[in-house]
UniProtKB/TrEMBL annotation:
Name of this chain's protein: Dioxgenase
Domain annotation VOC: ranges: 9-134, 157-280
Native organism: Haloferax elongans ATCC BAA-1513
Pfam family, one: Glyoxalase
Region described as Disordered: spans on this chain: 309-329
InterPro entries: Extradiol_RC_dioxygenase, Glyas_Bleomycin-R_OHBP_Dase, Glyas_Fos-R_dOase_dom, VOC_core
Domain of life: Archaea
């Protein structure tokens, strides 16, 4: 079998939230991301699916959420993405600490990791998130969304995810098969275990890092946890090549599933983390103009015929607007 086409990095991360309005307010107003798509959970149409991205929905920038209001809080542990980290421009963490103070966001002291400065914090559901200062190159593919946060501080897509694993070695072999190469290791700081953190890098410009940490911490899925992490397989051919490699390793990937804005393959890696392989197209502008992304509830495919029923079952939400926030000050 020929070697699979390497993944360029993270495509999106999907998490579980509680109250949908609270989720919208935090990720749009507090963190300054764009609501690029307001849709439904295609496996549970009674729940929203929100997609928060850069200004253009660039692959490698989508943090997505299933908000289930009455779901119990989960706990982060083995077999989960334990941390999701975003890139922010060099020198912007002072801005973010001041902003977190203003908005009452719970955050921790900065730490140094692999020569970079990291600011850990939690969203309103307790989801562990990090901001990492990096130098943003002039040709970076991300486009900052600046309705709430200035360009010099705006989030610029994913930096990394951290996987907590009981036995890291099989997962490491899988990551290497997918095109990630080990680039560094060090004793972890800011994690409960204090064990060796191994960093693996893809070749893409955004969301290129996956960190692996050993842990025996028990986990429970619920609000405040990651549901799955998706990796870029830009074309159907790229996706098929990695799917075949995953299958040959003894894992059980699904057949391709049409998710309307991308096509997906899912599987649980050896340690239990749910992985997705996602194509880069057709993208979020395939059914809405760029300047209208997120303005309406988009119902993929067969769900459009059930619009009245679905809308009646969803709670009303209001998208934060900068002009409204200024009027409230």
């Amino acid at each position: 079998m020929t070697d699979p086409t390497p993944s360029p990095g993270i495509h999106h991360v999907t998490c579980i939230a509680g109250d949908p309005q609270q989720n919208l307010g935090f990720w749009v107003e507090t963190l300054g991301l764009r609501l690029a798509k307001r849709s439904i959970n295609q496996d549970d149409p009674s729940a929203y699916h929100f997609f928060f991205t850069d200004a253009e929905g660039t692959p490698g920038t989508s943090m997505t959420f299933f908000p289930w209001k009455d779901l119990p809080r989960g706990s982060v542990g083995t077999g989960q993405v334990s941390r999701t980290a975003f890139r922010v421009p060099d020198g912007s963490l002072d801005y973010w600490e001041d902003r977190f103070d203003d908005y009452g966001v719970e955050y921790d002291d900065r730490i140094e990791r692999f020569g970079e400065t990291v600011l850990p914090f939690r969203d309103p559901d307790g989801l562990p998130v990090e901001l990492v200062e990096v130098e943003i190159p002039d040709d970076d593919p991300t486009v900052p969304w600046t309705e709430f946060v200035p360009e010099e501080a705006a989030i610029r897509g994913f930096h990394s995810v951290t996987l907590w694993e009981a036995d890291p070695e099989p997962t490491i072999n899988l990551l290497e098969t997918m095109g990630f190469e080990e680039v560094a290791s060090e004793q972890s700081e800011g994690d409960a275990q204090g064990d060796e953190r191994q960093r693996f890098a893809a070749q893409g410009p955004v969301g290129k890092y996956v960190d692996v940490l050993p842990t025996i911490e028990s986990s429970r899925q619920g609000r405040g946890t990651v549901h799955h992490v998706a990796f870029q397989t830009p074309t159907d051919e790229d996706q098929a090549s990695i799917r075949n490699a995953v299958l040959s390793m003894g894992l059980r990937p699904t057949t391709q599933i049409n998710r309307h804005w991308f096509r997906s393959v899912y599987f649980r890696e050896f340690g239990g983390v749910l992985f997705e392989l996602a194509t880069n197209g057709p993208g979020y502008t395939s059914d809405e103009p760029l300047d209208e992304l997120g303005e309406r509830l988009v119902l993929p495919g067969e769900f459009e015929d059930r619009r009245d029923e679905i809308e009646a079952g969803l709670p009303d939400v209001t998208i934060p607007r900068a002009e409204s926030a200024e009027a409230d000050d």
